[in-house]
Design brief:
Layout lengths: L2 H31 L4 H13 L1 H13 L2 H26 L2 E2 L2 H21 L4 E2 L1 H21 L4 H10 L8 H33 L3 H13 L1 H12 L3 H26 L4 E2 L2 H23 L3 E2 L1 H23 L4 H32 L1
Antiparallel strand pairs: 1-4, 2-3
């Protein structure tokens, strides 16, 4: 593995991060200038924009035939978004959860995750499946926009209060969007090529590379957005960004990737038996945690962060076919996971009874 490969990986990652930032900034200002509410901008433009690296990398991978990277990137990013990003953000400061997220967006994320698991049962995300997912994304976006019409006046007032300057000109905003897209395309090319080289050199499957290195790299915009939001006290943004990004990753990124892949996206047995169920379980685990007091406490953030470390350790052991893999998996499946699920269920039930009385 040459130094050039490492350089192109770093350059690709940097291009993805800066490209996403430019895209989010330009698209957000354009949306506000057209009277779209800040809520919709957060759930769509910002959340979708921070997922633009996943979109660029997965489309490039699917079109080039590296389907394991395309699928692993999405599944790994969704797991990382909840366990690592929310975990670290909650450790910084307890995160407030907007009631609309609990009532609407989190159930939508759970339902979409279950739908993906069902579609993958036959071992493939076909083009028809991709069309279905993308159609649901369009319907979801329209629904959110229609729902937010009452807040349109607030959006117009916010847009009017923005400071004047070169970045308020429509041509500057369009230029930011175009430049961001160009960086995303080029960065995805560099990152995918370097990731494939890493996998071949280290003897690790492209699926594991997609679930770990590529997923972590393309999730950097979400990491930066949520952690900075938590540090600045904008705790609802930290949560909304993650949930919106996870919805877009499945409906938009996987939907488009399945459409552009020559023969759809084959789903490996390992992905079907382990990674997809983990992603779905992580989505389901959000509901009781978000429901209890509409707050993610520090101890809950520590649980999320600990599970991400455990999940990554499992992937590393599996990639190396380590002797401890069987014992590690047995302990996780028969003790740690059931105990955590029972604790969350009891915690949620007690909170529900307290609220009822």
């Amino acid at each position: 593995m040459s130094l050039t490969t490492v350089v192109f990986f770093v350059l690709g990652l940097a291009a993805l991060i800066f490209g996403a930032q430019m895209l989010v900034r330009g698209a957000s200002k354009l949306a506000l200038s057209f009277g779209i509410s800040p809520l919709v901008v957060g759930l769509t433009v910002v959340a979708f924009g921070t997922s633009a690296p996943e979109l660029a990398v997965s489309i490039q991978s699917a079109y080039s035939g590296q389907v394991d990277i395309a699928l692993g990137n999405v599944v790994g990013s969704n797991i990382l978004n909840v366990l690592l990003i929310l975990g670290v953000s909650a450790l910084i400061t307890p995160l407030l959860v907007d009631r609309q997220l609990v009532r609407q967006e989190v159930p939508a994320m759970i339902g979409i995750s279950l739908l993906l698991l069902a579609l993958a049962r036959d071992g493939e995300i076909s083009r028809w499946n991709g069309a279905l997912l993308f159609g649901l994304l369009a319907a979801y976006t329209v629904f959110v926009i229609v729902q937010s019409r009452r807040a349109r006046k607030d959006a117009e007032e916010e847009a009017a209060q923005e400071e004047g300057g070169w970045d308020r000109q429509w041509w500057a905003q369009v230029a930011l969007v175009a430049a961001g897209l160009a960086l995303l395309v080029q960065g995805s090319n560099w990152l995918v090529e370097a990731a494939v080289t890493f996998a071949r050199h280290l003897g690790i499957s492209e699926l594991v590379i997609g679930l770990t290195i590529v997923a972590a790299g393309t999730s950097m915009p979400e990491v930066a957005t949520s952690v900075m939001a938590a540090l600045r006290g904008q705790r609802d943004i930290a949560v909304g960004n993650v949930v919106g990004s996870n919805i877009f990753n499945i409906l938009g990124v996987l939907g488009v990737s399945a459409l552009v892949a020559p023969g759809g996206l084959p789903v490996s047995a390992a992905m079907l038996s382990f990674d997809l169920p983990v992603m779905t379980a992580v989505a389901v685990a959000c509901l009781p945690i978000f429901f209890t007091g509409h707050l993610i406490a520090r101890w809950e953030g520590a649980v999320f962060f600990g599970y991400y470390l455990a999940y990554t350790a499992y992937l590393v052991l599996a990639a190396q076919q380590h002797d401890a893999l069987a014992e590690y998996g047995l302990v996780m499946k028969t003790f740690v996971l059931p105990l955590t699920a029972l604790t969350l269920a009891i915690y949620a039930l007690r909170h529900w009874r307290a609220r009822k009385h």
